[in-house]
C-alpha cells in the first residue's frame, strides 16, 4: 500500500511540475536556437541529446545543476531560463524583433509562443507574425502553412482586415515557392476587398500593389507593373521615425534586463508603434527599386538610374543590407544595358557580397546571371560559361525553378556560341523541364 501511495504522490508532483517544466523547456529551446546550437552541442559531454530534447518538450523538470550547466553553455544567467516574464512581454518581444528586422529571433519567439498552446483569439495573430518572419527568411513552405491557417482563423472570427494581412503573407509564400498565378490571385482578392469597402492599413495596399507589380514584370507586362507602382507611390508617405523606434526598442530591452517589466512594456509598446509608422520608409525604398526595374524594362535608363539611386539611399538609411543586395543587382543590370560591363560586374559583385552576408539567395543568383551577361558582352565566353555553371548548380540545390530556367537558357546560348551544340541541346532540354516543373 505504501508503494502505491508513494507512486500516486510522485505522479501528483510530476503533474504539478509539468507547467513549470514546459515553460522552462520552451525557454531553453528558444535560447538554444537563438544561439545556433544543436541539442547535441548544448548537451556537451555531460548530458545526452535525448535529455535536452526531453527538457525542451517539458517531459522532465531540470535540476538546478542541469540549469546552471545549460545557462553557462548558452552564455546566459540562469535566471533567464527561470524568470517568469509573462506572455505579454514575450509576445511584444517577438513583435518587436519582427519589426526591427531580426527575423530569425522573431521566428523563434513566435514558435515558442505557438508551442505554449495560446488562446483561440491570439493564435491567428501569432501565426501571422510567424508567417511573416518565415517569408523574410525565405522559408516558403513553412510560411505558407502558417499564413493559410492564420487567414482561415481570422476569417472564421469575422476579423476580415486581419485576414487580408495574413493572405498577403500567404501570397508572399506562394511567390517564394514560384506559384506566381496563385500569389497574384490572392493579392487581387485583397485589392477587390479594399475596393469593396474593407478598411485596412494604408501600407497593406502599398505592399499588395508592389507585389503585384513584381508579378506583372516577371510576366513581361511592364506597363501594368508601372501602373501598380505609380499608384502605390501616390499612397506612400515618407516617415523618418525608425531611429526613434530603434532607440525605444533598445531601451525596452535594457529595462527588461534590469527586471523592470512595466517600463519595458511601456517602452516596447511605444517602439512598436514607431516601427509600424516607419514601415513606409521601407516601402518607399522597395517601390523605388521596382520602378527602376520597370523603367529598365521599358528602355528608359535615365529614369531607371534615378529610381535605383533613390532606392539605394533609402535602404542605406535603413541599414538594410538584404535589400541593398537587390538594389546593387538592379544597378548592375542598368550598367550592362548602358554598355558598361565592367561597372556591371563591380555592382554585381557587391550584390553577391551583400546577398551572402544576409542569406539572400535570390539576389545572389540574379547577380551571378548579370556577371555572366557582362562577361558575354565583353567577349569572354569561357568565363561566362563557368559563371553560369556555378549559378545553375546553386539554383538546382535550392530549388529555384524560375531562375534555373533563365540561367540554363543563357548557358545554352553561350554553349552554342562556343560550338558545343550537344551541350547546348542538353541544357535547353533541362530548361524546358524546369519550366514545366
Please state the second-level CATH architecture of the largest domain: Alpha Horseshoe
CATH superfamily of the largest domain: Tetratricopeptide repeat domain
Largest sheet: none
Instruction: Report the average pLDDT across residues.
Output: 81
Look up the CATH topology of the largest domain. Answer: Serine Threonine Protein Phosphatase 5, Tetratricopeptide repeat
Helix content: over 70%
Describe this structure in words.
α8 runs antiparallel to α9 (140-156) and α18 runs antiparallel to α19 (361-377). This protein is an all-alpha fold and 437 residues long. The relative contact order is 0.05. It contains 22 helices and no strands. The longest helix is centred in the middle third of the chain and has 37 residues, at 261-297. The chain folds into four domains: 13-82, lambda repressor-like DNA-binding domains (434 Repressor (Amino-terminal Domain), Orthogonal Bundle), CATH 1.10.260.40; 88-200, Serine Threonine Protein Phosphatase 5, Tetratricopeptide repeat, CATH 1.25.40.10; 202-317, no CATH class; 320-437, Serine Threonine Protein Phosphatase 5, Tetratricopeptide repeat (Alpha Horseshoe), CATH 1.25.40.10.
Index terms:
single chain; 437 residues; mainly alpha; 434 Repressor (Amino-terminal Domain); Serine Threonine Protein Phosphatase 5, Tetratricopeptide repeat; 0% strand; globular
What does the secondary structure layout of this molecule look like, with pairings?
Layout: H1 2-35, H2 39-43, H3 49-56, H4 64-74, H5 79-82, H6 87-99, H7 103-115, H8 123-136, H9 140-156, H10 160-176, H11 180-195, H12 202-218, H13 222-235, H14 242-257, H15 261-297, H16 301-317, H17 321-337, H18 341-358, H19 361-377, H20 381-398, H21 401-417, H22 421-436
Helix pairs in contact: 1-7, 6-7, 6-8, 6-15, 7-8, 8-9, 8-10, 9-10, 10-11, 10-12, 11-12, 12-13, 12-15, 13-15, 14-15, 15-16, 15-17, 16-17, 17-18, 17-19, 18-19, 19-20, 19-21, 20-21, 21-22
Amino acid at each position: 500500500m505504501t508503494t502505491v501511495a508513494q507512486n500516486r504522490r510522485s505522479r501528483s508532483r510530476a503533474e504539478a511540475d509539468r507547467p513549470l517544466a514546459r515553460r522552462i523547456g520552451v525557454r531553453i529551446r528558444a535560447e538554444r536556437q537563438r544561439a545556433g546550437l544543436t541539442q547535441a552541442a548544448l548537451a556537451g559531454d555531460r548530458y545526452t541529446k535525448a535529455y535536452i530534447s526531453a527538457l525542451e518538450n517539458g517531459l522532465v523538470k531540470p535540476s538546478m545543476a542541469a540549469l546552471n550547466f545549460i545557462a553557462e553553455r548558452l552564455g546566459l544567467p540562469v535566471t533567464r531560463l527561470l524568470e517568469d516574464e509573462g506572455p505579454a512581454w514575450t509576445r511584444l518581444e517577438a513583435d518587436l524583433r519582427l519589426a526591427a528586422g531580426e527575423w530569425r529571433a522573431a521566428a523563434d519567439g513566435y514558435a515558442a509562443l505557438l508551442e505554449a498552446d495560446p488562446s483561440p483569439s491570439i493564435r491567428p495573430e501569432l501565426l501571422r507574425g510567424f508567417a511573416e518572419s518565415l517569408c523574410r527568411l525565405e522559408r516558403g513552405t513553412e510560411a505558407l502553412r502558417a499564413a493559410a491557417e492564420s487567414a482561415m482563423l481570422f476569417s472564421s472570427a469575422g476579423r476580415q482586415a486581419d485576414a487580408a494581412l495574413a493572405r498577403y503573407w500567404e501570397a508572399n509564400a506562394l511567390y517564394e515557392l514560384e506559384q506566381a498565378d496563385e500569389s497574384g490571385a490572392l493579392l487581387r482578392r485583397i485589392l477587390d476587398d479594399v475596393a469593396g469597402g474593407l478598411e485596412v492599413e494604408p501600407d497593406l495596399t502599398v505592399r499588395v500593389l508592389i507585389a503585384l507589380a513584381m508579378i506583372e514584370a516577371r510576366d513581361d507586362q511592364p506597363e501594368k507593373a508601372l501602373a501598380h507602382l505609380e499608384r502605390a507611390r501616390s499612397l506612400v508617405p515618407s516617415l523618418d521615425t525608425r531611429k526613434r523606434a530603434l532607440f525605444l526598442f533598445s531601451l525596452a530591452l535594457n529595462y527588461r534586463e534590469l527586471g523592470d517589466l512595466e517600463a519595458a512594456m511601456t517602452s516596447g509598446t511605444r517602439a512598436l508603434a514607431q516601427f509600424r509608422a516607419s514601415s513606409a520608409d521601407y516601402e518607399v525604398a522597395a517601390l523605388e527599386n521596382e520602378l527602376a526595374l520597370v523603367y529598365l524594362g521599358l528602355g528608359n535608363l535615365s529614369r531607371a538610374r534615378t529610381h535605383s539611386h533613390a532606392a539605394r539611399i533609402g535602404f542605406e538609411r535603413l541599414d538594410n543590407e538584404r535589400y541593398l543586395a537587390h538594389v546593387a543587382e538592379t544597378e548592375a543590370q542598368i550598367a550592362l544595358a548602358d554598355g558598361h560591363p565592367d561597372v556591371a560586374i563591380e555592382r554585381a559583385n557587391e550584390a553577391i557580397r551583400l546577398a551572402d552576408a544576409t542569406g539572400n539567395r535570390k539576389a545572389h543568383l540574379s547577380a551571378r546571371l548579370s556577371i555572366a551577361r557582362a562577361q558575354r558582352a565583353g567577349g569572354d565566353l569561357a568565363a561566362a560559361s563557368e559563371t553560369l555553371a556555378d549559378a545553375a548548380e546553386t539554383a538546382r540545390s535550392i530549388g529555384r525553378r524560375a531562375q534555373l530556367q533563365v540561367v540554363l537558357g543563357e548557358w545554352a546560348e553561350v554553349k552554342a556560341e562556343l560550338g558545343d551544340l550537344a551541350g547546348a541541346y542538353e541544357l535547353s532540354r533541362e530548361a524546358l523541364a524546369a519550366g514545366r516543373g
